[in-house]
Amino acid sequence: MEENSRDAHREYLDAKNLLIRVRQSSNSTVPPMNIALDDSSVEDILGIISKKPSGNTAASSGKSPGGKKSQKFPYIEDILVSMAKSGQLHKGTKLSLAECHLVNKKDNSQFVNTMKLVEELWTEEEELFLRSSREEIEESMEEAKIIAETISLRCLTKLNEFEGREDPTPTNHQKPSFVSVGNRARRVFIGRKKGDENLV
């Protein structure tokens, strides 16, 4: 019993250290956010980026009791965790070619653009972790969620940077839904392509 709790604590510390390294590497081109990452601030950050509307009966109608829209499309982290749990990533499938039961066929173009962006932005460490076997993912679900949320946050930050925003830090109203991120990524990819054509 004591050994299990030690293992769990060690896994938590490994995940926390990975999160710190990921944030440092992702912030190497972005000005630092001036936050000290101790146990409580890591949990605070993760709490902020994982805030999602709670599931309730009004969610099926697309509105919450306060009249606000509920989460209509899955977030990037939900899709990444789902694909990792399904074992598709372990087989080496490219993200943009993978299938996810959370994505409707009509939204496939946004899914593909989002996954292309993720493939650009995830680190080698993150990719290796999410491409672990189903059993390893199940055993390390908390770490998988942390990594997926970190990638999700990085996508929003980098899109803000690509779009030329002065402060690339994601705002409260920016949600990492794959549809929203996919539409924004598409504009970035089109802009790059036009830029490349202009250079020729």
Model description:
Helix content is 59%, strand content 0%. The chain is built from eight helices and no strands. It has helices at residues 2-26, 39-49, 76-86, 108-121, 124-130, 134-139, 141-162, 178-199. Helix 3 (76-86) crosses helix 7.
Q: Could you give a short account of the major beta sheet?
A: none
Mean pLDDT: 78
The number of distinct helices, counting runs of at least 4 residues, comes to: 8
Secondary-structure-based class equals mainly alpha
Task: Give the H and E element order.
Answer: HHHHHHHH
* End-to-end separation: 65 Å
Describe the SSE topology.
Blueprint (H helix, E strand, L loop, with lengths): L1 H25 L12 H11 L26 H11 L21 H14 L2 H7 L3 H6 L1 H22 L15 H22 L1
Summary tags:
mainly alpha; 200 residues; 59% helix
Task: Sum this structure up briefly.
The chain has helices at about 1-25, 40-50, 75-85, 110-120, 125-130, 135-140, 140-160, 180-200. The chain has about 200 residues and is mainly alpha-helical.
